[in-house]
Design goal:
The chain has 135 residues and is α+β, with helices and mostly antiparallel strands. It has a single domain, classed as Archease, Possible Chaperone, Chain: A, domain 1 (3-Layer(bab) Sandwich). It is 27% helix and 47% strand. It is built from 2 helices and 7 strands. It has a 4-stranded antiparallel sheet with strand order 1-2-7-6, with helices on one face. It is globular and about 40 Å long. The two termini are 25 Å apart. The relative contact order is 0.26.
């Protein structure tokens, strides 16, 4: 499981990969979380679960990443890490741990996840995605 940031003219773009679809999703979440909070260490004070669906793997990834922004904006919750991801068809169950965002000083520059240049591919036994975040 890994991710790296790619060149983009105005926004943040990353590529994430994993040996399974679930690992790739966890890597994508880690890249998004780094973009949101920088290098701030978030305490693992609370656990939350959520479920999302998508019409395909790209839609599922989009909805998955949007949930992290929802947790931050609507529930004042910063994710420290993803504990588990289960994908069945185009349905995903996730458990995350984190803490109240009010306990940290950070600048969230992420406005939205975009479909621009987004893809999910299986390539050589690995799953790879690319995502652009509107900042």
């Amino acid at each position: 499981m890994s991710y790296k940031f790619l060149e983009h003219t105005a926004d943040v773009k990353f590529r994430a990969e994993g040996s399974s679809l679930e690992e790739m999703f966890v890597a994508a979440a880690a890249a998004m979380n780094e973009t949101v909070r920088g290098d701030i260490k978030i305490l693992e004070q609370e656990e939350k679960g959520f479920e999302v669906e998508g019409k395909d793997q790209v839609g599922l990834l989009y909805n998955f990443l949007e949930e992290f922004l929802f947790l931050l904006d609507a529930e004042d919750f910063l994710v420290a890490k993803v504990k588990s991801v289960e994908i069945d068809d185009n349905k995903l169950k996730c458990v995350v741990v984190g803490d109240a965002a009010k306990n940290y000083k950070f600048t969230n520059d992420v406005k939205a996840v975009t479909y621009s240049d987004m893809f999910v591919k299986e390539k050589g036994g690995k799953f790879v995605c690319e995502v652009v975040l509107d900042v």
